Amino acid sequence: MDAGKYFGTFRACYGIKDAIILNHAPVGCNWGTMIYGTSQNLNDLRMSSSIMHEQEIVFGGENTLKETLISMDANYDTVKNPLLVLLVGDIPSIIGDDVSGIVEDVEIEKDYVIINAEAFKGDAKKGYEDGLLKLYSLISKNFDEKIERKNKINKINNKKDTKKDTSINSINLIGLCIDDYKIEADLKEIKRILKEFNIDVNCVLSNCTYSEFLNSPNADLNVVIGQGFEFAKIMQKEHDIDYVSVNYPYGIEGTKKFVKSIISKLENNRYIDEESFESKYNSLVDYEPYKRVSVYMNGLYSVPVSIIGDFKAESMAEFLNQELGMDIEVVAHYGEDYKTDVLSSYSTIIFGSSFEKGLSNDLDIPLIRYTYPVFDNVSLSDNIPYAGINGALCLVEDILNSALSRCGKFKYKI
To answer: Looking at the DSSP assignment, which residues form a beta bridge with residue 221?
Structure first.
């Protein structure tokens, strides 16, 4: 499943927690983004639609857009919701609505940005990249150059002061979304571990307030997780902030690589030394819970599984194969035709999203939901992550329970 550029752009923008989104598109686009985007938080509804019907498709949607803009600007407080994002979908782009002209006529009091997000012009990842790039124009417009100069001077001084080994590094996490499954629990765990290594998270894209977003150029490093590379590149060019690409931190070893890759780019971090890092990291890991179920864990060895997802799929496959010893039958991404491969495989568990429920039913095997979109399962506790050191334990627990619940029900192919 890849819903196209429109969904990717929506996810990049909706992650600005106090922004409001106006979908200038038929009602189906608004419903689709809403049902996937708010399934983990039904109280977070900051979106509306110009609701184009047949009449607007034939005669143009400028009038309904103008009415909706006036209504949204009046009903959403400028202090609580300082940013309006206008997403322009397929139909108004094809029929040529003068969106910029309408917005200028209305004279909106909030900051605003207009983004063309036609679904037929790319996949969801391109939409996310383009959405963040367009949002960057707000940083270049609002960022206080005096603050930037002051922070650059501080960064230079910190680099010179090599004895200052207790200094705190600041990073941005780029590529995450506010509607990712278990995002709050995962972020809490990731921040906890990074804090142990004197690293603070300055901003999470896209899961931040508008002010945090505007403050993102004050970080020491951009950490790109799967998507958001173009945003990181322009930050490198315009604000002299280096970036590093990392995998999603699944598993104990996967999390170690994640943290180690970040620290390798931070010159004044006290754990850049291999021995210091290993000593600190090992002190954070508790293997006792795994030992209590070692017999069950041995049973996971060579168990065939399939993994479907976005950029997280490779990270999950690496954890399952290298840390648990499971056999990976299929690794596939949204947009690819993977159903035949999974159906003809020996898989006994599928790792995917709600869209793989049909496949798991057809094969009569468990589905472990780990990636977007998940709309038939909720994640309420922020203490049950899948990422990080604690996340590895939670994942193993869910995998073992899924397998144990199927005892005596597995079918074997000859």
So the answer is: 171, 242
**What DSSP line would sit under 3-72, residue for residue?**
--HHHHHHHHHHTBTTEEEEEESBHHHHHHHHHHHSTT-TT---EEE--B-HHHHHH-SHHHHHHHHHHH
- The reported pTM is 0.90
Nearest partner of 87 among 114, 107, 69, judged by Cα = 114
- Taken as a whole, the chain contains a residue count of 414
Dihedral sign for Cα atoms in the order 386, 389, 390, 394: positive
Q: What is the DSSP string of 246-260?
A: -----SHHHHHHHHH
Measured CA to CA, the distance from residue 68 to residue 66 in angstroms comes to: 5
Rounded to whole angstroms, how far apart are CA atoms 333 and 176?
17
CB-CB contact of 225 with 204 (8 Å): no
Sheet holding 327-333, edge to edge: 327-333, 304-309, 349-352, 367-369
Tell me the three state secondary structure of residue 44.
coil
Q: How far is CA 92 from the centre of its chain?
A: 28
Task: Locate 336 and state its tokens.
Answer: 């690819």
Running DSSP on this structure, what letter comes out for residue 25?
S
First to last CA, the chain: 31
How do residues 373-409 score in pLDDT, each as one tens digit?
A: 998 888 888 999 999 999 999 999 999 999 888 776 6
**How far apart are alpha carbons 36 and 388 in whole angstroms?**
25
Q: What is the chain's alpha carbon radius of gyration, rounded to the nearest angstrom? A: 23
Residue 21: strand pairing partners: 47, 85
State the residue for tokens 């004197």: 198
**Residue with the two structure tokens 């309006």:** 84
Long-range contacts of 68-75 (CB under 8 A, 24+ apart): 68/22, 68/24, 69/22, 69/102, 69/103, 69/106, 69/108, 70/106, 72/20, 72/22, 72/48, 73/106, 73/108, 73/109, 73/110
Are the CB atoms for 146 and 156 separated by under 8 Å? no
Model confidence at 149: pLDDT above 80: no
pLDDT tens for residues 304-347? 999 999 999 999 999 999 999 999 999 999 888 899 999 999 99
Mean pLDDT of the chain: 90
Residue ranges of E strands in 206-267: 221-224, 242-245
How do residues 347-373 score in pLDDT, each as one tens digit? Answer: 999 999 999 999 999 999 999 999 999
* C-alpha–C-alpha distance, residues 219 and 152, integer Å: 10
